[in-house]
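Newbie here. two chains, one complex. Structure please?
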Amino acid sequence: MTHASESSTPATKTPESFWEIVGRWSMSVDHKKLGMMYVGAGLIFFLVGGLEAAFMRLQLAQANLKIIDPETFNQLFTMHGTTMVFLVGMPILLGFGNYLLPLMVGARDMAFPRLNAFGFWLFIFGGLLLYFSYIGSQGLYGAPSAPDVGWFAYAPLTDRTFSRGNSTDYWILGILVSGFGSMTTAINFIGTILCMRCPGMTLMRMPIMAWMMLVVAALVLVAIPVLTGAQIMLLLDRSFGAHFFDPETTGSAVLWQHLFWFFGHPEVYILILPAFGFVSEILPTFSRKVLFGYPLMVAATVSIGFISLGVWAHHMFVVGLGPVLNSFFGAMTFLISVPTGIKIFNWIATMWGGRLRFATPMLFATGFIAMFVIGGLTGIMLATVPLDWQLSDSYFVVGHFHYVLFGGTVFGIFGALFYWFPKATGKMLSERLGKWTFWLLFIGFTMTFMPMHVSGVLGMPRRIYTYEADRGWEIWNLITTLGVPVQMAGVAIFLWNVVKSLRSGENAGNNPWDAWTLEWSTTSPPPEWNFDRIPTVTSARPLWDSAHPEDPDAHYE
Amino acid sequence: MRTMSKFKPTLSRAKVGMASLIFMESALFSAFLVTYLYYIGKSPTGPQPMDCLELGLVTINSICLFASSATVVFAVRALSRGSLKGFQVWMLLTILLGLEFLIGTGLEWKKLIEVQGLTIDSNVFGTTFYTLVGFHAFHVIVGLVLLTGTFMLALCGCIKPERDTERVEIATWYWHFVDVVWIIVFTLVYFVGKVPQEALS
């Protein structure tokens, strides 16, 4: 060994062994490595959740098909929903926050680096625990192997009597554990944003994404604990004979719905606000303009945060809460569309009159706005109580939330992946392949989710295993299913793009998009310490200021 | 350049982190408190709060827990004065008071289970009572672990008054939080929740 190390010249580095690389990554507390691991793990779960959806669509492609068992179908929609919300959306968005926040506010790491690593490994453990149910949860003969109670796990279906075996316990524990991971990450975000900003960076000079992440972190700390509490109660019900959600012994099934949706609705804003942040960073860069109405954007974000805590029962209009509560929650839901609308108009005004460059991140950001508006509008339709009575739990609802979560969150995530990939790896992704990805995803997405609105209005309930041939649903279901391979092709091209770029991509340089926020001032990829010298800023666009000393932004603040 | 260009955030990470943790814990307790409130008077059968819950022992426990919040303040004050000895004495007293609370709760539960026959599956009163009080007791245990750890560090001389006063003070915030939650739990369970069955129906 000593001979080998002596013979090699000091300049050439011996290549790391596989286990050295594993050790370097798994023991790291560096926010950039953790952020990339979050995004990478989230993308793997994205493929798994996507495959689950593909199997469901195969089963529903035509009437009276029997491709998979009904029991398997129940497990598929439960695992698909749970995976996409808790193991794809949350970790990828929190992962981007992890990677970007310290760079954006000019810090060398998060406020609590070790807590950060702890949160990441909790998320991984929770995800593996959930999927371990396929192997480990067959407690009784004939009991289901994976959770099959739907992603919102309504009582009393989750009761011991109706959900035998251990699959629901795996659902509870997997989400509980990864939930604690999210909460520690949220504490870290708040600490980083409030305490780690570089000199000169007042709150109103932060990149707008940092504001969005601050509100997201606060929402995580309000919403996730309520789910955790409800899950602890459910665990006590199932394991110790408590009666929280057991209607036979004066427990209340509706209480579970209240607690779950008190978490569930802020959760959708937790999933969309970071995507708002990505889009708000991408649009100014590719429009060559400042973000329109920064202070209003901040105000809108904070009001969304507050209002989102008072809309949960619009998921429960069909429960029979009575006219007063229904009207209140309907009105609150209309109200939340006001700050959201402000954002849409701000984005359009940012693009208005700009010199637009339609690189791939910009395509996704523009697609995001259009698709999110459609999802938002169907959301307002569903907030109308009488219409909701008609459409609740139909495919219309499925179409609605996939427009906001796929057309919104996932498009935002892909935009962010294309935008910040050069920063994280130092290599550009191929624009040609990127455009293929966008158009395939866009067309596949529209084919899959637009017809769902029609089949929903025609009366097709969500979560059904199969359907009769004479309902008029067939053509819409067929189009929906045909959209799936188109989307899969888009994702496959994206993965190929990543591999190709890592092997032989163009070098990115520090600032390939000519953007203005601090993460672009350091090298790509950034050194472990992020900045050689901690920067000092005098406005919200430090890189504009250093490029244009004759006309700095500080003059207009 | 404006004056704002000299701006530098001065908040302490530790304070913000602990405040966020307490914020999160408050949300967690809200779920249990709301559930308790929701189920008051909804147990037609089984042991009732009117018959089971007595104020005697729990009042002593509560006084001990409230007193421990004061003693921990004295401990931090002693530390900020530079008196490590005083810190150790007040900390020990705090830990003992916390232990008394836990033992008292255990004795109360023993009586409830053995004499009144109230268990977690008797009715929703039993379910919510043991969950809420037990969840708080669990937080007392966590707080005690935190305080005991600090006390041990002080015993081995690892705590330096001038360097560590702020850190220790932030750790005691958690203890105060556990205390404040008990005020709410105590009021809810032993006063609000003891409404007779007939009054509600």
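Moderator note: The CA atoms of residues 120 and 140 of chain B lie 20 Å apart. Residues 84-116 of chain B form the longest helix (33 residues). Thread marked as resolved.
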